[in-house]
Design brief:
eight-stranded antiparallel β-sheet, 406 residues, alpha+beta
């Protein structure tokens, strides 16, 4: 995974869906179809209109071509249901296989939201404590003790909120050698070529985005249950919610491979996926916007006390409680972080979500508004998908009459 332009993504989240108008009591299919057509033809170019002029509007196809993004899939949530979902473009540039609502995309760092849900489910079962030393649970490997951990320990709460003092690292490995194990990744041992999970800062002292912190969480879950992470996700999250097109197993099962959206670089050239074969919790989810919408809806329902299928209302509310204030200069807008999610706004304007971007070219982001029962998930198979997502959100807010940029 590569570092993401959080400033852009959080700008999208901060400007979208705040103070939404109430939806109609009965959804009108004809009205929804008209809205879809208007969204598809109302995308502004990112940055246009900053001088006060009225930006020219483009079709989604035109903006996909300009950003060299071959495929896009999205799902729009309204009144705690999927109002509509649709795919555009192709799975691979130059190919004919179309993107559909069943096409699988890389969720990238949005995967961390699923990992957080798995942790909280395990906490509800009294098998984990968010504030206990993770070395209490780890069997295959231990967080190395050092001067930094003399008084403060790595707890699950801290990697969930990027405050464990672990390094910011991606996960290269020697592809000519054998596949690295999860323990080799954590140790930074060959054939893994990433930084090891060695504490760099006093745990809890500073926010530092860390993918490997979620790999530590993956190892905790695997050691506690004695099962592989991908199987745990299937039984704990995907199966209960009917997320039938979601998996942490990669390469994909043979029956699913024809649905895979291939990543493309910033020139629109198809590239081989760079999904890590062992480290999955930080960015290894393959899924669809509709499946992520099912998860988003369930979390929103639970937060309002209307469901407990996956997590209790108390656990979801804990998830959405701010744990750390993020530097506005760093992200371009005031933001906070809960347990595995970014948070913006307050009260009826509270939103939660998580963006993601995988090398060499796949993007995803998810946002939900619990008090409004609304949200959106956008996934692309192109490195230019982040700007395209911003333009899509501008079109959505315009068509639906949702204020943008506040």
């Amino acid at each position: 995974m590569r570092p993401r332009p959080f400033c852009l993504i959080l700008l999208i989240l901060s400007g979208t869906f705040l103070f939404l108008a109430a939806p109609p009591d009965k959804p009108d299919p004809a009205q929804t179809a008209q809205r879809i057509r208007e969204v598809e033809s109302s995308l502004p170019e990112f940055g246009a209109g900053n001088d006060g002029s009225v930006p020219k509007l483009y079709t989604l196809a035109e903006r996909m071509a300009a950003g060299k993004v071959p495929g896009v899939s999205l799902a729009v949530i309204d009144r705690l249901r999927i109002e509509w979902a649709k795919g555009y473009g192709v799975l691979r540039a130059g190919g004919t296989a179309p993107v559909t609502t069943e096409s699988l995309f890389e969720a990238a760092s949005t995967s961390k939201l699923v990992t957080a849900v798995m942790v909280l489910r395990t906490v509800e079962q009294d098998r984990l404590d968010l504030d206990a030393d993770v070395n209490t649970y780890l069997k295959s490997w231990k967080v190395p003790e050092s001067e930094f951990t003399r008084e403060q320990k790595v707890t699950l709460r801290r990697p969930l909120t990027h405050r464990a003092g672990l390094p910011a690292t991606n996960f290269p490995y020697d592809e000519t050698a054998r596949i690295p194990t999860l323990v080799q990744v954590l140790r930074g041992e060959a054939p893994a070529q990433n930084k090891p999970a060695v504490i760099e800062l006093v745990p809890g002292s500073k926010w530092q985005y860390s993918n490997i912190g979620y790999v530590v969480i993956q190892q905790v879950l695997e050691d506690v249950y004695g099962q592989r992470f991908e199987e745990l996700a299937r039984t704990m999250v995907f199966r209960p919610l009917g997320m039938k097109s979601s998996t942490f197993a990669y390469p994909l099962p043979p029956a699913w491979r024809s649905r895979e959206a291939v990543p493309h670089d910033d020139q629109g050239t198809a590239r081989e996926p760079a999904m890590h074969p062992a480290a999955r919790a930080q960015g290894g989810l393959m899924t669809t916007p509709s499946d992520l919408a099912r998860l988003t809806i369930e979390l929103m329902r639970a937060s309002g006390g209307r469901s407990g299928r996956l997590l209790s209302p108390a656990s979801v509310r804990q998830m959405l409680q701010p744990e750390v204030e993020l530097d506005p200069k760093l992200f371009g807008t005031p933001a906070r972080e809960g347990l595995g999610v970014f948070l913006l706004g307050e009260g009826e304007g509270l939103s939660f979500g998580h963006p993601g971007s995988n090398y060499p070219g796949a993007t995803c982001w998810l946002v939900g508004y619990p008090e409004k029962g609304r949200g959106v998930i956008v996934m692309t198979n192109g490195a230019g998908g982040e700007l395209l997502a911003l333009e899509l959100m501008a079109a959505l807010t315009k068509v639906y009459g949702w204020p943008f940029g506040r």
